[in-house]
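Thread: quick sanity check before group meeting

JM: Hey all, I'm pulling together slides for Thursday and realized we never actually wrote out the predicted structure for the chain we discussed last week. Dropping the sequence here so it's in one place. If anyone has concerns about the input, flag it before I start.
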Amino acid sequence: YITENGCAVDEAVTDTRRIAFLEGHLGALRTAIDAGVDVRGYFTWSLTDNVEWIEGASKRFGLVHIDYETLRRTPKESYAWYRDVIRSQKAPRTVESAD
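JM (edit): ok, ran it. Output follows.
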């Protein structure tokens, strides 16, 4: 399992650097899986912006932007990008007949 893989960037909702970061890491992960590495799961870091011990609230870590004054949540471009990546990897469901 790969947990908490992500990056802190100063970009708000348009976070192209995060998309590039994730795209590179997921590409390397695909290469590893194709080579036989047993990967059971991948979790990006983090779903929402948060406050870190060292960085405080100065860096944005999440796929969802949080306005710390209003607490309004806005999905970032990386959110939509990652959603689409997940959808493209999902195996179609098969429907079994009830005979």
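AS: nice. The chain has one domain: 2-89. Residues 2-89 form one domain.
JM: adding both to the slides.
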